[in-house]
UniProtKB/TrEMBL annotation:
Protein name (database record): M20/M25/M40 family metallo-hydrolase
Keyword annotations: Hydrolase, Metal-binding, Zinc
PANTHER family noted in UniProt: ACETYLORNITHINE DEACETYLASE (PTHR43808), PEPTIDASE M20 DIMERISATION DOMAIN-CONTAINING PROTEIN (PTHR43808:SF8)
GO molecular function, one term: hydrolase activity
Cofactor: Zn(2+)
Domain (Peptidase M20 dimerisation): residue spans on this chain: 196-296
Lineage top rank: taxon: Archaea
Origin species: Halomarina oriensis
Length: 403
């Protein structure tokens, strides 16, 4: 079996949705992925796909210990490309507002419900069955399968560890099966190829005022009030734009400060999201924030920093994949074969493991994922037909790209 369409045809609808349902029924908020990583490992092992655990450790900030699951198909030609297939196994923390079991995996009207059904157990099921299909193909290049932990957590520790431990060193391109269209900058529908994403920094701003009795606030410098002024200034920052990724953005998230009654707050802390496009480096966004603060001429002292991270290179950089890259052309052809139409093209509005691969690992990275609704919220669902379609497109596109 060598023709891409033949590979796609081996993806079984019922088996794919059954796998998805099993994945959704496993509770797996970030930092609590032991059961689902064991399931993915055992599923691959039962099919003779030789999975391995890849340990992930971050002792200093989170204390996290966990495992990615990796497996590799060896191609026949040493000079052929190696393709990374990636999905994350974790979900956000379970949302309280669910009116049913958040891990039910209930199917109704072509929708499968559950926390993480769309983000991204649909995509995880897709690459699992695509990888199984590719194992039956004579490929020139290698396929590296990675199911990673902690994408929804604060640092993307699973993908970070893959890069840090050299797993991506010999890769030439990557497919990540995140839900794409629903989180794109523009109105895009599946089948779609998402060819880039904005990056993100998290401002961590310390504001230091001067304490005084709350009945005489004029004798102090209110750090909470000044933190609010800084938040407003950041909210109005001029940001750059990119022809594909759109505009950057700033979103103040949280102000902490004060607590005592009858006391002018001496200190406050402001957190603000900064989504960036190429050219908006860490140095640039710090300088812009510092200039905005200086223009306020506050009595408080303000220190513009960034959130603490396990390492200096843990950040989400923006990236764009060329539409003419061989992987994009292969996925375009696969979409024509599988779906009978040309894929739409979009660009992601936020960040994820794909930023690590597309920017830090410098891999041409394409997001191909099933859509749904209510991502990260109660009532989350994924369209089951799109899960199967994504599996087929990934299998056919990978077979074409790898020869």
């Amino acid at each position: 079996m060598s023709h891409p369409q033949s590979v796609a045809d081996t993806v079984d609808d019922e088996a794919t949705i059954d796998l998805l349902q099993q994945l959704v029924r496993i509770r797996s908020p970030y930092f609590e992925e032991e059961e689902i990583t064991a399931f993915v490992h055992d599923w691959l092992d039962e099919r003779g796909l030789d999975p391995e655990y890849h340990h992930v450790s971050e002792p200093d900030i989170t204390g996290f210990e966990g495992d990615n699951v990796v497996a590799r198909l060896e191609g026949s030609a040493p000079d052929a490309p190696t393709l990374l297939l990636n999905a994350h196994v974790d979900t956000v923390k379970i949302v309280d507002a669910w009116e049913e079991d958040p891990c039910s995996g209930r199917i109704e009207d072509g929708k499968l419900y559950g926390q993480g059904a769309c983000d991204m157990k649909g995509g995880l099921a897709g690459i699992m069955v695509a990888f199984e299909a590719l194992a039956e193909v004579d490929l020139a290049g290698d396929v590296l399968f990675t199911a990673v932990v902690d994408e929804e957590g604060p640092y993307g520790l699973g993908a970070d560890a893959l890069i840090r431990d050299g797993y991506t060193d010999d890769c030439d391109a990557a497919i990540v099966t995140e839900p794409g269209p629903i989180l794109c900058q523009s109105d895009v529908s599946n089948p779609a190829l998402v060819l880039g994403a904005r990056g993100r920094y998290l401002y961590d701003v310390a504001v230091t005022g001067h304490a005084a009795h709350g009945s005489q606030p004029h004798k102090g410098v209110n750090a909470v009030v000044d933190a609010g002024r800084v938040a407003a200034a950041l909210d109005e920052l001029d940001v750059d734009s990119h022809p594909d990724l759109g505009d950057g953005s700033v979103c103040p998230l949280k102000i902490d400060g004060g607590s005592q009654t009858l006391s002018v707050p001496e200190s406050a802390r402001l957190l603000a999201d900064r989504h960036v496009v190429p050219g908006e480096t860490k140095e640039v966004v710090r300088e812009q924030a510092e200039a905005a603060v200086a223009a306020l001429d506050l009595d408080s002292e303000v220190d513009v920093g960034f959130r603490e991270a396990p390492a200096a290179d843990i950040y989400y950089g923006p990236y764009v994949t060329d539409e003419d890259h061989p992987l994009v052309r292969s996925l375009d052809g696969a979409t024509h074969e599988v779906a009978g139409k040309a894929p739409e093209t979009g660009y992601f509005s936020s960040v994820g493991d794909f930023n690590y691969f597309g920017d830090r690992a410098d891999l041409p990275t394409v997001i191909v994922g099933p859509d749904g609704e209510n991502i990260h919220g109660a009532g989350e669902f994924v369209y089951t037909d799109e899960v199967v379609e994504v599996a087929r497109i990934v299998a056919a596109g990978a077979a074409s790209y790898l020869g």
